[in-house]
Amino acid sequence: MSQVTNSNLNTKSNAKKLACQKYEPGAEIPILDSGVWQVDQGIVQLSRLRTDGNEVIVGFTTANGTFENSLSSPLVVSRATALSDVDLQYYSQQDIAESPMLARRLLGGFCDRLEKTQQLSTIILLNRIEERLRQLLLMLGQEIGISSADGVRLQVRFTHQHLAHIIRTTRVTITNILGYFRNQGLICFDAKRHIIIKGL
């Protein structure tokens, strides 16, 4: 009897550990075969790995946002990466089935994420790369920006290569456009090289 009790306690303990997880910037977050992750705080980048090895960034999710394994299809593998310190809450399929209120809240997160993914897809399809970058920065400002004395500061430091990867261009092109935006007074950088959006 005592062995069964101890086993049950261990199972509950493991479930509790799985329920809340912390990740540091740059860490890859496992996308489990079932259940849903909800972001309590922080910023997570969502991407897909194609069979040719190329990674396509499909969006970002912040507090109350969600992601799960249904991002995947037989042709792609999903990846979630912490861009900041991230706290996540895990909900199993059983958790969701037993709580209609939780299910509704998670559904709202799914809908919001799909809308933002569509927005990013629309930006990538723009012909002019300058306009792609402008619209990307505006979107990032809305999603992960915080107001400052100089404008809207992006909470994550994006390298030129990272921005180039998102909108599918070259690092040199991004460097040139950011230089132009800066000269025009549309953006600036803080001491930690975070972009501050001033007048895009």
Task: Kindly describe this structure.
The structure is a single chain. This protein has helices spanning 2-19, 93-98, 100-124, 129-144, 160-167, 171-183; strands spanning 20-23, 28-29, 36-41, 44-50, 55-61, 66-68, 76-82, 86-91, 145-147, 152-154, 187-189, 195-197. With 200 residues, it is α+β, with helices and mostly antiparallel strands. The chain has two domains: 13-114, Jelly Rolls (Sandwich); 129-197, Winged helix-like DNA-binding domain superfamily/Winged helix DNA-binding domain (Arc Repressor Mutant, subunit A). The strands form three sheets. The protein has a four-stranded antiparallel β-sheet. A four-stranded antiparallel β-sheet has the order 2-7-4-5. Strand 9 (145-147) and strand 10 (152-154) form a beta hairpin. The protein is globular.
What is the count of distinct domains?
Answer: 2
Total helical segments: 6
Largest sheet: 4 strands, antiparallel
**For the terminal residues, how far apart are their CA atoms?**
68 Å
CATH class descriptor of the largest domain: Mainly Beta
Instruction: Average the pLDDT over all residues and give the rounded result.
Output: 84
Q: Structural class from helices and strands? A: alpha+beta
| CATH architectural name of the largest domain | Sandwich
| Overall 3D form | globular
CATH superfamily of the largest domain: Jelly Rolls
The CATH topology assignment of the largest domain is Jelly Rolls
Helix share bin: 40-55%
Instruction: Give the helices and strands as they follow along the chain.
Output: HEEEEEEEEHHHEEHHEE
- Main sheet: strand order: 1-8-3-6
Secondary structure: number of strands: 12
Percent strand equals 25-35%
How large, in whole angstroms, is the Cα Rg? 19 Å
| Low-confidence sequence ranges | 1-17, 71-76
